[in-house]
Amino acid sequence: MLLRFFRINDPYRLIGLFIIIVLISLPFLIMPVGIMLSELKNLVLGQAIAEGKLMYVQVFDDTPPLASVIYGLMHLIFGKSLLAGHIMAIFIIIFQSSYFATLLINNKAYAENTYLPSLIFGLLCFFSFDLLSFSPELLASTVLLFALNQLFHEVEFKIQRDEITLKLGVYLGLTTFLVFSYWVFLVLTIFILITFSRAGFRKIALVVFGFMLPHALLFTLYFYKGATGLLWTNFYLSNLTFSGEMLISTKGLFVLAAVPVVYFVFSVFMMNREARFTKYQSQLMQIMFLWLLFALIQVLLARQISPASLIPFIPPLAYFVSHYLLLIRRKWRAELMLWLFLGGIVSVNLLSRSGKIVSVDFTSLFPKTNTSVVEEKRVLMLEKDLNVYQHNSLGGYFLDWGLSAPLFTDLSKYDHVEIISSCFKEDPPEVIIDKNNLMQGVIQRIPSIGMEYRREGNVYKRISN
Prior knowledge:
Blueprint: H1 2-7, H2 13-30, H3 37-50, H4 65-78, H5 82-106, H6 116-124, H7 136-155, H8 162-176, H9 184-196, H10 201-225, H11 228-239, E1 245-246, H12 250-256, H13 258-274, H14 279-301, E2 304-305, H15 314-327, H16 331-353, E3 378-381, E4 393-394, H17 401-409, H18 414-426, E5 431-433, H19 439-445, H20 447-451, E6 453-456, E7 459-462
Parallel strand pairs: 1-2, 3-4, 3-5
Antiparallel strand pairs: 5-7, 6-7
Helix pairs in contact: 2-5, 3-4, 5-6, 5-7, 6-15, 7-8, 8-10, 9-10, 9-14, 13-15, 14-15
């Protein structure tokens, strides 16, 4: 029944998609598990940007620029509402699912025009609860779908125009403004263009130019502000990593992705045995398989690895799983496999979320219990600990301690002292938590700061004027 409903080429099937995704989302909205560390950081960052602080200069953090601007806008509109972010994430998932199916229909990816991929795409977005977070990965994957559409157009020999190639590069460049490690898809795109469309130097140069254009504009802005050094250090260098921090074990990731992986294996066997492709459809299939391989590379290059990091796998998996279901000849069997897919995805999600699956440990995704007695203050935390911001806001410039620590530990450099001095002049925190006694060195170099604060153990409190 469900398969037959979405198999029909009728845009009104998307209303059914909307209803199904909303229904599946309800348990996660009605019974939230609490704020995650990534969400906490994004809320704090959004408030700082909404207050007019310049990223990388007045906010030391490695979040890409477009993501930080979006979080600033979210704070201006919704404040610190976590529910608003979850609802926005649901609508983004609905849009991506609809767009993906339309993309495949317009590019004749299957032998029949069907909206089944929209359902599969939407269901895959529920393999873990943290995909419902308003995350940079979710935003970047939207732009990545736009790039995929342009890539399909370019591969089809009938449609080759310079504006398509240029837009392809721009979209890929914008994805790095949301998740920097998505630059690997530029390498994938160049490889595909050379392999499948025999693109020459001019085409490749256009893609690279489009990719670099947003970065050139960003550098121009920071050059005007005289802060290209901070932009390079806090954004580019900090995001060029080759070993991400695992927030969930590899075993846990495999358990969460078990159902999609099993169906992917089924699809590969079925497509080798049953599928009959045109040359163009065969090329699209190879592109999707390459996408899977590069998505794996992207995950390995990510700063932090969580279930949400696997979002780039969703489009190719939706493509292959849809193919598998469409190739099953017996309708009752295809219907059964679809319901098993739906039930398996949702069950694993709910069971892991409630702690029933022991091998999936989400502890590292959440902040520890806030033991700080400081509340509703503008706080500067001189160590790696975001927990204090559960009931406080950022005071000063220093959000990411990995980027901020060198300034406080090496005060022999004049520019370090200058940045700290500027921070305390323009945005003095109300409370400083200093468990490692770093403020002593700061006060020795900048005595005026010591006159504005009263020390109480590991805490400095600003003296009211």
